[in-house]
Each structure stands twice: as structure tokens, then as C-alpha cells.
Write a structure and sequence with these properties.
single chain; alpha/beta; 6-stranded mixed sheet; two-stranded antiparallel sheet; 8 strands
Length: 206
């Protein structure tokens, strides 16, 4: 079970991400099981503001690659070939999924990112963007795995000290995130009477 410190870092990560989202916001939750044996400390889906979207896109160098369009062309348009002035930002879907791993100590960090078979799935992309969330100065940037970013506590919030590398993942994974977040929301729902979040599971079973 995650500690209170893990939950605090996960909450900060979701707030940090929400501040970079479009007016539609994000949908996220803590403790999401996204694969067998893989429970992420926090996950979210949503659109980033265009500035942040282009920043991650440009850093990934995906503009140098070619993709089929996200929009569905007519059969006569296939196979689709990108023109020379093709702008990948106009075609890559902006519905991204985001994954956060909270680590409260170096031992906690290395227990997950130690290249063991137990946590081998952390070495494979499971979202479009991945971050490790830690107290300030706990780990060095060069210790962060290749495509992961690093968020460190700064004041009352977080500071991105290493940017993640954007990953292209199957649309089915986005649907998996949406389902898990929606299911989690059945317990973490807002009470219309008092306007607060209810974190406890109900006494009854459905």
C-alpha cells in the first residue's frame, strides 16, 4: 500500500498537470492498475495547452517522422504519404495519457528502477508522457530512465527538472486509462450535498 507521502506527491503531480491543461481540464486518479502487476501512483488523460503540447512534441523529434493521419481518409486516399510541408502537430492526436511514479527515498526509487525483471514494465512505454515525482535533490537527472521525466518538490508545488520523451502508444491504451479512471471515480466521487471528495469505499458490495 502507498504511504501518505506517496499520495501527497501523486496529488501534487495531478495538480501540476492540470495547470498545464486546456480549459477542458484533465481526468486523473491515484493508484491506477494499468497492467498486470503494474499499479501507477497516478494517471491522467487530457489535452495540454498548445505551448506545452508543442514543447514535448518538438523535443521528441517526431516532426522528423511520418505518420498516417489521425483523421480517417477515404479509401482512395490510401496509402497516405505526408507532403513536404506536413506538420505532424496537426495530425498527432492531442488526447494523451500521463503516468506518474511517486518516490519518497532513494531506496524506494531503486526498488522500482533497478533493471530487475519484477519491474521490467517500467522500462516500456505505458503512456504518452511519464514522470518520476520526488522530493527536491533526491535523485540526479542522469539516474532517471531514458524516456521518463523528473518532477521535484519546489515550494508548495513541483518543478520539472527533466522533461520526458513523448511516446506514441496505441489508442487502446488510452481507452484502458479512461476505463480505469472512470472506475476509480466510482469511489472517489463528489458528494453533491457537501461538495467534498469521498475517499472511503462504501460498506456495501454491488
Amino acid at each position: 500500500m502507498p504511504s501518505r507521502e506517496h499520495d501527497v506527491l501523486a496529488d501534487k503531480a495531478l495538480i501540476w498537470l492540470a495547470n498545464r491543461a486546456t480549459h477542458t481540464g484533465i481526468r486523473g486518479a491515484r493508484e491506477i492498475q494499468i497492467a498486470n502487476g503494474y499499479v501507477a501512483d497516478a494517471c491522467a488523460i487530457g489535452w495540454l495547452q498548445y505551448h506545452w503540447y508543442r514543447d514535448y512534441l518538438d523535443r521528441s523529434e517526431l516532426h522528423k517522422k511520418r505518420f498516417r493521419p489521425i483523421r480517417h481518409p477515404s479509401p482512395g486516399d490510401l496509402p497516405w504519404i505526408a507532403p513536404k510541408d506536413y506538420n505532424v502537430a496537426d495530425e498527432i492526436d492531442r488526447d494523451w495519457c500521463y503516468l506518474f511514479e511517486s518516490k519518497i527515498s532513494r531506496a524506494d526509487f531503486w526498488s522500482t528502477f533497478n533493471h530487475s525483471d519484477k519491474h521490467a514494465n517500467r522500462r516500456e512505454p505505458m503512456a504518452n508522457l511519464h514522470w518520476i515525482v520526488t522530493p527536491c535533490g533526491m535523485i540526479q537527472q542522469q539516474e532517471v530512465p531514458d524516456f521518463w521525466g523528473l518532477l521535484e518538490v519546489s515550494g508548495g508545488g513541483l518543478k520539472e527538472t527533466k522533461k520526458p520523451i513523448l511516446q506514441i502508444v496505441p489508442e487502446l491504451l488510452m481507452l484502458k486509462y479512461a476505463k480505469c479512471i472512470l472506475w476509480k471515480g466510482c469511489w472517489n466521487r463528489r458528494d453533491p450535498e457537501c461538495g467534498v471528495w469521498i475517499d472511503e469505499e462504501p460498506d456495501y458490495q454491488i
